[in-house]
Task: inverse folding
């Protein structure tokens, strides 16, 4: 057997011990992969707010925290008034509401969506949907002023088991699903859109909106336009750009990255201790074997390389197992909850997982390898 083949085979002589070591390290690697994939997916979903054609600015009442739902209302007429501000190309009043949704035929309820504790319904004129990133609809959009039409996001449609032509009940009123849309944002795709005045009537918010979506002209500076809106309506309106919202989310995701780093360090420490234990036991059990190898001419450096190689092979195997478990686990979870959210497995995540495994193997195998390389042949051959 070649030297390389010997290094690959040796760690698995004691299969039970090797399996336990692999499982212990794989759990840490899988956790790192899961957090990395979710963080990457959230960052990609955040950038969807910057997609071409969608509104770059969201105008809300002061004190609403930057989001319209549950943060007060505005007069719908302000949407037209904002068109007079330099750099504003288009506006749309939006009303957000949260409600339980019941399928007319199944009486099943849904808590999907992104509203506070229920299914989020957005009221908006159908000719303004592009400002919310809805460029195409499978089926057709609702008719403005219609009291019984709406469109569902892909996630909501899947969770509710609805298709074009299905009927659902919202606020005690039956609605026909005229179309299914997909924006790429797992939050938006978990709700529904209907005519603005229909939702206003259902929620007793006549002439009111939660927020106003603003599309800037092509040559306008979005930040400047946002500041102009604030200056025009001091103590009344606040304006947040899509880039600012994306930055806020990315800052929040920094906590997830910090947690992932902490878990990485913990995996190195725990994995390193586990590998040290496994490799020391392996060296003890093979003391006579190592003595024979040194007696027939193996140098200490060759013994050192063999033990270190075995340790690294063991941890890299654990890394592969951890990556597979992490990826499969995330995909199964998303399939079960029926989310359109896409977790991203990037090269950086793979390199990080493999790098941590390599480091654990190197650190964990260093002392046992050194100990094995220092064994005297005569003493090793006498060992029982």
Result:
């Amino acid at each position: 057997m070649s030297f390389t083949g010997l290094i690959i085979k040796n760690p698995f002589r004691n299969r039970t011990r090797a399996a336990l070591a692999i499982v212990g390290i794989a759990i840490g690697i899988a956790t790192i992969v899961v957090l990395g994939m979710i963080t990457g997916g959230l960052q990609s979903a955040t950038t969807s707010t910057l997609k071409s054609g969608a509104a770059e600015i969201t105008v809300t009442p002061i004190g609403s925290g930057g989001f319209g739902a549950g943060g007060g209302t505005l007069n719908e007429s302000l949407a037209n008034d904002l068109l007079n501000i330099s750099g504003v190309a288009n506006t749309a009043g939006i009303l957000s509401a949260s409600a339980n949704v019941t399928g007319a035929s199944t009486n099943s309820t849904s808590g999907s969506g992104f509203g506070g504790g229920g299914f989020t319904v957005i009221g908006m004129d159908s000719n303004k949907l592009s400002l919310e990133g809805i460029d195409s609809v499978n089926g057709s959009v609702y008719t403005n002023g219609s009291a019984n039409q709406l469109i569902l996001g892909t996630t909501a449609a899947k969770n509710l088991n609805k298709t074009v032509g299905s009927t659902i009940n919202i606020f005690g009123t039956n609605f026909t699903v005229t179309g299914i849309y997909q924006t790429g944002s797992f939050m938006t795709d978990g709700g529904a859109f209907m005519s603005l005045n229909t939702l206003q009537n259902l929620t007793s918010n006549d002439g009111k909106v939660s927020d106003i979506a603003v599309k800037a002209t092509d040559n306008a500076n979005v930040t400047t336009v946002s500041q102009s809106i604030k200056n025009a309506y001091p103590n009344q309106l606040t304006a947040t750009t899509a880039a600012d919202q994306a930055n806020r989310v990315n800052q929040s995701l920094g906590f997830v990255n910090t947690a992932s780093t902490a878990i990485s360090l913990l995996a190195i420490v725990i994995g390193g201790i586990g590998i040290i234990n496994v490799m020391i036991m392996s060296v003890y059990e093979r003391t006579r074997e190592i003595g024979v190898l040194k007696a027939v001419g193996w140098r200490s450096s060759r013994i050192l390389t063999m033990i270190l190689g075995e340790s690294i092979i063991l941890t890299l195997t654990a890394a592969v197992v951890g990556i597979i478990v992490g990826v499969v686990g995330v995909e199964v979870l998303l399939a079960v909850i029926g989310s359109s959210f896409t977790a991203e497995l990037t090269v950086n995540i793979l390199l990080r997982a493999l790098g941590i495994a390599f480091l654990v193997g190197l650190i964990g195998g260093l002392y046992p390898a050194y100990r094995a390389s220092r064994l005297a042949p005569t003493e090793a051959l006498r060992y029982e």
